[in-house]
Design goal:
Layout: H1 4-15, H2 20-43, H3 48-59, H4 62-72, H5 74-110, H6 115-119, H7 122-145, H8 152-173, H9 179-197, H10 201-221, H11 228-263
Helix pairs in contact: 1-2, 1-4, 2-3, 5-7, 5-11, 7-8, 7-9, 7-11, 8-9, 10-11
């Protein structure tokens, strides 16, 4: 048998009411209802130790009450989650893009390469799109995992893969090249999977650095013959991206939690 506070906390916790102020109002309503039940039990001349039990028994199933609230507020809850996802993606992508581009600018200066050639280029636009899609995929996986109880990561990956497949098919049908969607999916899955499956932070960092260094080697092997400086810049750039994406895994959930908390008060 739940106590009064535990019962109210369970109902409100499972109800998925998006507004903090509305949740506080529901808490007050539930408490007033329980007090009415206690008053009725007291007026029926029940013993003091039976009053709480009778009031809680007459209150109803807390899980069923919570499901009723969840049905009422399901659209508001969905809009809140979508808003948090979009704002989190934009915020984290902006932070990661700024960090990576700033570090790449430092690398360019160190190798004597004009900043304009690095920053004001088609490659930079592609890189920003890759970062945006990676952050969206990573945060999307975190959000989708909450939909499942068991094998959450695997099911979230399958669901995200389905969505990416649909978007890719639509982009191909409209002759829009959306390679960044696939890149973001693979990248997002890589970082989320390593985060979930590999608990040691040092090991995760080493694996990420090795994989991105290998990607840098493969990328310049596919290009025509280029200078040794260009090869060094390319490999360093990939390692910089690895560092930026590691930053993403550290701040993404914090940004999402802060935005979720803030939007509930609006």
């Amino acid at each position: 048998m739940y106590g009064v506070d535990e019962l109210i906390a369970r109902v409100v916790g499972l109800s998925k009411i998006p507004s903090q102020k509305r949740r506080q109002a529901v808490v007050a309503e539930l408490r007033a209802h329980l007090e009415d039940c206690m008053l009725a039990a007291r007026e029926s001349d029940h013993a003091g130790d039976q009053i709480d039990q009778l009031a809680l028994a007459n209150f109803g199933d807390p899980d069923e009450i919570a499901r009723g609230f969840a049905r009422v507020y399901r659209h508001d809850w969905m809009m809140l989650r979508i808003s948090v996802f979009l704002l989190s993606t934009i915020t984290v992508a902006g932070l990661v893009s700024g960090t990576i581009l700033a570090m790449q600018a430092g690398v360019a200066i160190g190798f004597g390469i004009p900043l304009v050639k690095i920053l004001a280029s088609r490659h930079t636009v592609i890189e920003i799109l890759d970062i945006l899609s990676t952050v969206a995929a990573y945060l999307g996986l975190i959000s989708m995992e909450t939909l499942f109880r068991h094998h959450r990561l695997q099911k979230a990956i399958a669901l995200l893969a389905l969505g990416i497949g649909v978007l890719t098919a639509l982009s191909d049908a409209t002759n829009i090249h959306a390679r960044f969607l696939v890149f973001g999916f693979v990248n997002g899955v890589f970082f989320r999977a390593t985060q979930v499956l590999i608990k040691n932070r040092g090991t995760r960092t080493a694996i990420t650095a090795a994989c991105f260094a290998l990607a840098g080697v493969i990328s310049f092997q596919l290009q025509p013959a280029i200078s040794q400086i260009a090869i060094a810049v390319n490999c360093t750039s990939w390692l910089v991206m690895a560092a930026g994406y590691q930053l993403m895994t550290k701040v993404a959930t914090r940004v999402e939690a802060a935005l979720f908390e803030g939007l509930q008060w609006i």
